[in-house]
Write a structure and sequence with these properties.
Layout: E1 4-5, H1 7-14, H2 18-26, E2 37-38, H3 39-45, H4 55-68, H5 80-121, H6 124-142, H7 148-164, E3 165-171, E4 176-180, H8 185-191, E5 209-214, E6 217-219, H9 229-233, E7 236-238, E8 242-244, E9 248-251, E10 263-274, E11 279-285, E12 299-304, E13 307-312, E14 322-328, H10 333-340, E15 347-354, E16 367-372, H11 376-389, E17 395-401, H12 409-418, E18 422-428, H13 433-442, E19 451-456, H14 458-470, E20 478-482
Parallel strand pairs: 3-9, 16-17, 16-19, 17-18, 19-20
Antiparallel strand pairs: 1-2, 3-4, 5-7, 5-9, 6-8, 10-11, 10-15, 11-14, 12-13, 12-15
Helix pairs in contact: 4-12, 5-6, 5-7, 13-14
The structure holds FE2/S2 (inorganic) cluster (FES).
FE2/S2 (inorganic) cluster (FES) binds near residues 203, 205 and 207.
Length: about 475
């Protein structure tokens, strides 16, 4: 009997990114059936993989843990009722498999008896033929297939994975993510960087309503919002109150920049980190009940003690309550406040978000990120978001800096070290905007299949855009933000 695994589970099991697997499918190296991979095919294509080694998946999670300062891949146990349900499902599968094996055992005994009857009723030649046939059957049953041990290890790993997490597939966007530990479906989606639509995040507004297409969900938080009985009968549920018991397919809408309401969020300073003489990273933490909804690449207005300033969010939306902003030392009042007297636990209000410089979530093309000085802030957020989503075939980051320096150079090098599909090139400003643009473009002779996200001064963006178009970049692949 064939056993099929989803591409997301295969990615976790063999420690290869989904993007890399999709490339293998496209190149004909890995066969799929309805988007799933058969166990035997998996063993054929990855003969040397050690199932306990999550490879790139672990490395990406480690990057997130270090870089995003957040809880990722904690082996937190699910809610105990969810755990019981998952164990029950798995036990039922094992019981069905065991009863099938017992049936086959009986069948073998019956075939043996029938063959004995045939041998008794026939001549010596028939008796000899039956003996030969029975010997052959015994040999076939006893000879363990070469792949059986590896297949068993893989199935054991997959079963453990199914107890700890459930896969969610979102229609119509096609996004996939895993629900781990006690997370609701909404929390798990946001951690994975998928901006599903929601409002209050605590069961009051109904904005996170989704429809269950297949699988089983369970309420883990009560909600005040009343769903109509007819809607419930049609599979409606609130993603902020429910978790996934089994692998599920849901219908839910993904938010674009225009869908996110302007918010006013009171936050506290978690740290003012002086990265160098010229730049500080301001780390803010939002209240548990009032997270900031934003998309990577957007900006916000900050205010503290009557002083305000506009800054790009440098953290990923998947970092939950943690918001990071990069503040350049200059004469702007908010910058002066950050460098002179903003302290841990001080109150800072965030107003926003605003802006359309956001990631194209359905693109599978190679992505080129270009940051100029502290234009790195939105680019960092976008790059982390792209890593979370695993959408890009490859990622190239260019960071042009001089006054401020590549102030998070180590982080960029860590990404490049850890990810097979990520390269990082620091560049100096000194040669002039045109020359820097040409240096970047010289590394990409054809840009027909590419997306460029660039944040920097207008004249630099102008040269970069013209050169990129000359190399075949589609106007739809150009995403730029003027940062002064
Ligand atoms: S987000 Fe408001 S009810 Fe779920």
């Amino acid at each position: 009997m064939s056993h099929y695994l989803s591409l997301s589970r295969v990615a976790r099991l063999v420690g290869v990114s989904r993007v890399a697997l999709q490339r293998m499918i496209k190149d004909g190296q890995l066969a799929t059936f309805d988007g799933d991979v058969e166990l035997e095919e998996l063993l054929r294509v990855f003969p040397d993989v050690r199932w306990q080694d999550d490879g790139e998946f672990r490395r990406v999670e480690e990057i997130k843990r270090k870089a995003f300062a957040k809880r990722v891949f904690e082996r937190a146990l699910p809610d105990k009722e969810v755990l019981a349900d998952r164990l029950f499902d798995l036990t039922s599968e094992f019981a069905a498999a065991k009863s099938l094996l017992m049936h086959y055992d009986e069948l073998f005994k019956w075939i043996g008896a029938k063959l004995d009857d045939v041998a008794d009723s026939g001549g010596p030649a028939t008796a000899q033929a039956v003996v030969t046939l029975k010997q052959w059957i015994r040999q076939q049953v006893e000879a363990a297939p070469k792949e059986a041990e590896r297949g068993r290890a893989l199935l054991a790993e997959e079963s453990a994975m199914r107890i700890m997490s459930a896969q969610v597939t979102v229609q119509p966007s096609g996004h996939e993510f895993f629900v781990e530990g006690n997370d609701t479906i909404l929390e798990a989606a946001l951690r994975a960087g998928i901006p599903l639509n929601y409002g209050c995040s605590n069961g009051n507004c109904g904005d996170c309503r989704a429809r269950l297409v297949s699988g089983e969900v369970k309420k883990v938080h009560p909600h005040d919002y009343l769903l109509k009985e007819a809607d419930k009968g049609n599979g409606a549920f609130l993603m902020c109150s429910y978790t996934a018991v089994s692998d599920v397919v849901i219908e839910a809408s993904v938010a674009g920049a225009m869908d996110i309401a302007f918010q006013t969020i009171p936050t506290k300073v978690k740290a003012v980190e002086l990265i160098n003489e010229r730049v500080a990273a301001l780390h803010l933490i939002t209240p548990r009940s009032q997270r900031l909804r934003f998309l990577a690449g957007q900006q916000v207005n900050l205010s503290a003690d009557g002083v305000t300033g506009d800054y790009y969010v440098a953290s990923c939306p998947c970092e939950d309550r943690h918001i990071e902003l990069h503040v350049r030392r200059d004469n702007r009042p908010f910058a002066r406040k950050v460098f002179e007297d903003l302290r841990k636990e001080d109150a800072v209000t965030i107003n926003g978000p605003s802006g359309n410089f956001v990631i194209k979530m359905d693109s599978r093309r190679p992505v080129i990120f270009v940051a100029w000085e502290d234009g790195f802030a939105p680019i960092k957020s976008l790059a982390q978001h792209a890593m979370s989503l695993e959408v890009a075939e490859s990622m190239h980051l260019y960071w042009v800096a001089e006054d401020l320096g590549q102030y998070q150079d180590n982080l960029c090098r860590a990404w490049a070290d850890a990810l097979d599909n990520f390269t990082y090139t620091p560049l100096k400003v000194e040669s002039g905007v045109r020359h820097v643009a040409e240096t970047i473009l010289a590394r990409h002779p054809s840009l027909i299949r590419a997306d460029i996200y660039a944040a920097g001064p207008a004249d630099f963006l102008h040269h970069l855009r013209d050169g990129a178009m000359a190399r075949g970049l589609s106007p739809l692949g150009w995403h730029a933000e003027i940062v002064v």
